[in-house]
Design brief:
Elements: E1 6-7, E2 13-19, E3 23-33, E4 48-58, E5 78-82, E6 93-97, E7 118-122, H1 128-139, H2 142-147, E8 154-158, E9 173-178, E10 189-191, E11 198-201, E12 203-206, H3 222-228, H4 235-244, H5 258-276, H6 280-306, H7 321-324, H8 327-330, H9 364-374, H10 385-392, H11 426-440, H12 444-447, H13 456-477, E13 483-485, E14 499-501, H14 504-517, H15 528-531, H16 554-569, H17 572-584, H18 594-605, H19 607-611, H20 626-643, H21 651-673, H22 680-701
Helix pairs in contact: 1-6, 5-6, 5-13, 11-13, 13-16, 16-20, 18-21, 20-21, 20-22, 21-22
The protein binds zinc ion (ZN) (2 copies).
Residues 256, 258, 301, 305, 311 line the site of one zinc ion.
Amino acid sequence: VLPGFAFSASKSTWAAVKGFEKNTEIQVAATYASSGNLDIDTVPDSRGATVNVHYSISKIPTTGYTPRLADDRVGYFLTVVKDYSKDSDRDQFVRYVNRWNLQKADAKAAVSPPKEPIIFWLEKTIPYEYRKPIREGILEWNKAFEAAGFANAIEVRQQPDDADWDPEDISYNTFRWITSSAGFAMGPSRVNPYTGQILDADIIFDADFLSFWKHEFETFTPESIAAMTGGPLDLESYEKQMRSRSPFALNDLMACRRSDGMARQLALGASFAAATAADPKMAAELQERLIAEGLKEVTMHEVGHTLGLRHNFKASTWKSLADINDPAKTHDSGSVASVMDYNPTNLAPKGQKQGDFYTHTIGPYDMWAIEYGYKTIAGDTNAEVAELNKIAARSGEAGLTYATDEDTRGIDPDPFSNRFDLGNDALEFAKQRAALVKDLLPNVAERMTKEGDDYTQARLAFNVLLATHGSSMFFAARHVGGLELSRSHKGDAGAKAPVVVLDPKQQREALKLLSENVFNDRPFTVPPEVYNHLGSSRWSHWGAEPTTRPDFPIHDYIAMWQDRILSQLMSSLTLDRMHDAELKVPVDQDCLTTAELIETLTAAVFAEVDNVKDGEYTNRKPAISSLRRNLQRTYLRRLSHLAMGETAAPDDCQTVAYAELSSLNERINKLLESKVKLDSYTRAHLTETSARIDKVLDARLTLARP
Ligand SMILES: [Zn+2]
Ligand SMILES: [Zn+2]
């Protein structure tokens, strides 16, 4: 509810009341009154704001449906009830998967059509050119049902232009097409609250992501960057965020926020198409293919939700990037293990063959999950368990690994569970994305604008490329202090232990990649005139605000990404995990310690302090560049917080940070006292840095604590 508004019974009325065979739909035009001081885009006079509230009431069917018990190795939405008579030494929860009631028409046949198929009606509002990929995306799931014993489990029908039935009728599952800029959701899906039986599903498809050059790409903020990379990174800020959430807010773990990132992925693909195509006609064709493939993949994803499936953010790590770009290897099984991941646009490195932009079919995880949920098993709910266990016990097989939303928060340790990552080697993915960005950045103004266009698209594309670089480096950063988690149960063939400490070699390789590509100004060497061609939007009216910085804030934007990656590496949770890992790895085995991490970071960030040679330094050609000076300040701030004990990191990290600061200070002073003639910027920066370190070391020694 809007703050300052109160429900007004006298101004509210019934907007619509509809009765159907199995359900009643009631719409209330609820009007909220206020003093009228607010300015809201969509309300002419804010003394009264009307919100249509929809109530949907349906009859619970009494047909013979056998609820199926859930398993934590396979990702279904759940219906959970408590059975106080349940005889168990664990708890009294009974967890059912949400699924459709599919029954074989011919109970004896190995493969039979269902008595009642799941029928999706394509609404007549779907533009003609998009109907084919959408239809194909829906029907792709029949492959999985066929393997589970059902022929043609899903049917697609086109709503005729003169159809008079209402999509709100529960008897119809619809695929609806809207443009709301609210992001699309799986839409209202009705489930029997006692059994988990899905009764009706309408996919509300928000076509807004097809206008993928979003105005919000024009300006980045630390908040938008955090949202792109999983939100809060330490427990304190995570708990603060959880507390500030409205109790009425949609449960984040259940929502599908795919469109936010999808628009960015399509914009990246379009930039790639514009930059790599030989001519504009070819670029247009590439972009058309990109959108058709993207639309089919998003359809498969949304339909997956309506079949009961949750996200699987590990599915994108099934194949190597080389295999993903090899059509012979993706022809049958697609490029990812599941369409229930948020899969990014696949873009082949320069000079290599381009595979599918998006996977063209459902993967092995999808087949397996449908088998678990839908395969016909004799007997009642409890009699099914033995057979279900056999299916779930395959969890250790390649391509069947499952990790979902609650495994993919900023605070989670598993670097293999990510949104919009691709391939089985995140470091290789980051390298390829960095090379791509480096290649595209210098030509962005030239390639992204046509004769007669304004320059805004150049800026949007530039920011999308910066975000591509930053977010793929963030995946690499999650390797440091990372743990691989497994949901497999004891005895599952090929399964890993529930927790595996990441190989220290991999962690060090990630650190090296970050020092070369993030804690370094080389990747950002763009011809200066490019910055002056990144135009901003000139519109100022309702729904459009002028940009606060019409010039491009290059220092700020690079600093934001560096800070985000440093905050992941130095988060108290990362340090805690690394500190604990020292006991979880046998003493005679290698392990990346927190001391090594802090020392490596200081050496990378403050490399100049040890390496500056005597030379001709001027304020235009300084010994330490402006981007590096910024990075050093950001890092120093974090290291100081750590040394002063202001974070929840282990005390051991506090003392290491303290020692590191005092050693750094000695080296800085040595450089300042040496014969090297520094420019004014560098000298001022180092002098101030040294004074700051003195204060921090002092402050800590005079702390009032014993
Ligand atoms: Zn989703
Ligand atoms: Zn993923």
